[in-house]
C-alpha cells in the first residue's frame, strides 16, 4: 500500500483547530492562526501595487519567504504530529516519497491548495499541479501564488534536504502556470538551488 | 464565548470557511515575516498599508456577523471583534471605550509572542495588524464606516514582554 491521497485528505480535513483560553493555538510546535484568505490576498496585492517597479521582485521574494519559513517550521510539526502519524504513516511503504505524498494531501486538507504531485524525481525535482488555491482569487498581474511557491519549496526541503532544521534553502520553487493568470491550473516546479 | 461559530468545509475545493468567510491556517512565522516585510517597505507606507488591509478586511467580517445575528448594542457589536480575535488564534484582549475612543489591552498576542519567539524582543512596536483590527472593531461597534478611528500602539508586548496597550481615537 502507498499513501491513498483521498483517504488522507478526507481524514485530515475533518480536524478542527480552535484557540485555547488565551486565544492562542499552539499546535505543530508553532503558534497557529486561521485568518480570512481575502485579507492575506489583499495584503499581497496592495504591497505589490505600492512597490516601485525596481522593488516588486523584492516584495515577491519577501512574500515567498514568509510562506517558506512558515511551511518549513510548521511542516516539520505537521509531519511529526500525532494526526499525521495516525492517518498517513500506516500507509507509508515508499519512504520519503510517501511522506511527501502525505504532506501534499495535508496541504489540500488544510485548504492551502487542492493540489498534488504530478512528477517526482527523488531528491532532485518535483512538479506540483494545483486545481484550486486561494491565491488564485488575488488581484494583480502575472503569476502571484507566492504562498504556494514557498510551501512547495519548504515541503521538498523537509523531505529531501538535510534533516530539520539544517536543510533550509536547499531547493527552490518557481511557478510556471497560474489560474490567476488565465491558465487552467497552477503549476509549481521545485529544483535544486 | 457568545460568538456563534459555523466552521464548514467545501468538499470539492477543500477550502475552509468560518461564518461564511474563507479562512486559512498559517503559523506565527508567516505573520511575523509579513509584519517585517511591511516594515521593510516603510518608505512606501508598508505598516499603514498593513493596518488598512486588516481594517478593511475585518470590518467586512464583523459587519456581516452583527448584521446576520442582529447584534444591536455597541457592547454586543464590540464583543464580536474581541471574541473573533481569540477564535483566529490572535490572542486575548480587554476593551474599554465609548464612541469617542478608548483603550485596548492586549493580554496575549500571537503576533508579538510570535515575533519574540522568532527574533527576540524588538526596539519598537510592531503590531500594525492589531491596530487595523481594533480600528475595524470600534467602527463596527459604533456603526461607522472603516477609517473612522485612529489606533496607536503605545505599549508593545514585542518590546517589553508585558501586556500591550492601544489607544483609540475618533478620527
Task: Give an overview of the whole structure.
- The complex is a heterodimer of chains A (193) and B (171).
- Chain A is 42% helix and 22% strand.
- With 193 residues, chain A is α+β, with helices and mostly antiparallel strands.
- The longest helix of chain A has 24 residues, at 56-79.
- Chain B has one domain: Muramoyl-pentapeptide Carboxypeptidase, domain 2 (2-Layer Sandwich).
- Chain B contains six helices and seven strands.
- Chain B has helices at 28-40, 46-68, 74-87, 110-119, 128-141, 157-160, and strands at residues 7-9, 16-18, 21-27, 91-98, 101-109, 149-155, 164-170.
- A four-stranded antiparallel sheet of chain B has the order 4-5-7-6.
- In chain B, a hairpin with a 6-residue loop joins β1 (7-9) and β2 (16-18).
- Chain B is globular, with a radius of gyration of 16 Å.
- Chains A and B meet through β2, α2 and α3 of A and β3, α1, α2, α3 and β4 of B.
Work out the radius of gyration of chain A: 16 Å
- Range of strand content of chain A: 15-25%
How would you classify the helix and strand content of chain A by structural class? alpha+beta
The appropriate CATH architecture of chain B is 2-Layer Sandwich
Evaluate the radius of gyration of chain B: 16 Å
Tertiary shape of chain A: globular
CATH homologous superfamily descriptor of chain B: Trafficking protein particle complex subunit 3
Strand line-up of the largest beta sheet of chain A: 3-4-6-5
| CATH class bucket of chain A | Alpha Beta
Contiguous uncertain segments of 5+ residues of chain B: none
Q: Count the helices of chain A. How many?
A: 6
The CATH class label of chain B is Alpha Beta
Shape of chain B: globular
